[in-house]
Every structure is written in C-alpha cells, then in structure tokens.
Design a protein that fits this description.
hydrolase; 9 helices; cell membrane; elongated; single chain; transmembrane helix; Phosphatase PAP2 family protein
Amino acid sequence: MILAFNGSSIDGSTYTYVVNLAHDAPSWLDSLVSAWSTYGLALFAVLMLVGWWQARRSSAQAAMVALAVPVIVVVAFGVNSLFKMVVREDRPCQSLHVKTLEACPAPGDWSFPSNHTVIAAAAAVALLYVSRRLGTIALLGACLMAVSRVWVGAHYPHDVIAGVLVGTLIAMLLTTLLRRLSDPLAGRLTDSRLLRPLLVAA
C-alpha cells in the first residue's frame, strides 16, 4: 500500500461545505461548472493562439514571448508533477469518502497541487505579458477553474491555492527572463526565412 498524505485536516470542512453546496445547487449550474472544469483549459489554448497572432503585428519580440507561452505552461505542469510525487496527497474524495460531481480518481492520482489550476494560472500570467486584455480574460478563467475544481470535488481549496501560486511564480520567472533575452534572440530568428513568418506578420 502506498503511504499518502491526508490533507483533510487542513481544510476538509471547507471542502465538504463546497461539495454539499454543489449537491444542493440547480442541476444546470452543476452541469455548467462540470463542463468548465473538464473542458475549460481549451479556452487558454485559444487565447494563446490569438495572443500569438496579434503579437506578430506588434513586434518580433512580442511574438517570441507569445510563442513561449505554451512552453511555459508545459514547464509549469512538469514542475507541478514533481510536487505531486513528493507530497503524495490523497484526493479528498478518497480521504473523506464523499459523493462528488466528478468521478473520484484512482489511488495514486495525487491531489496537491491542482494540475488544472497550475496550467490555467501559468497561461493567464504569461498571457498578461503578451496582451493585457487577453491576460485579464485568462485570469478570470483561471479563477473560475480553481473554484470549479473544488466544486466538482476533485481538490481541496489548498490544492488550488497552491496551484495558483506554482503557476504564477513559474510564469513570472520564465516570462521575465525571456523578455530580457527577447531583443537579441528575435533579431537572429527574424533573419531566418523559415522562422520569420512566426514572428512577423506578412
């Protein structure tokens, strides 16, 4: 048997309160939240694509930062996966044995921090460096994603809070570093006939 951390002592009561709210909520609301929790990350992919398309019309430096957003998200996901393996926190539905909107994951699918929230937060923060408008939309989406993961019963509140922190810190660090390197790199990349269309609009 795999030894795992039980996070219910941290905010299990808050988690249970939210899950009970979900049970008492109208079915249309639960369906909406569940759909967002499951498929909402697609919005961030669309925003990244729009951000890159718009950045090409601004400058090669901006386009390069926009192209890096998906890479930053993947890095954040990778770092978060390491945290999950180190902490090894059981899902709340396993520790508290409550009925949830989302099917309870199998043992070994660790809870802390929330992958969905890390991805959403990293994408939102990185997009803020590309477009304030797109970044603001993504930030709102990231907040909704964090809430939805607790609502459907997949995570404790502290899981999603940690996810926001991990995604935000990694995105800020990598994007700030990239912006410092963007001027010389963009100049070299735009000299390439193969890569220039990715950075500069025709």
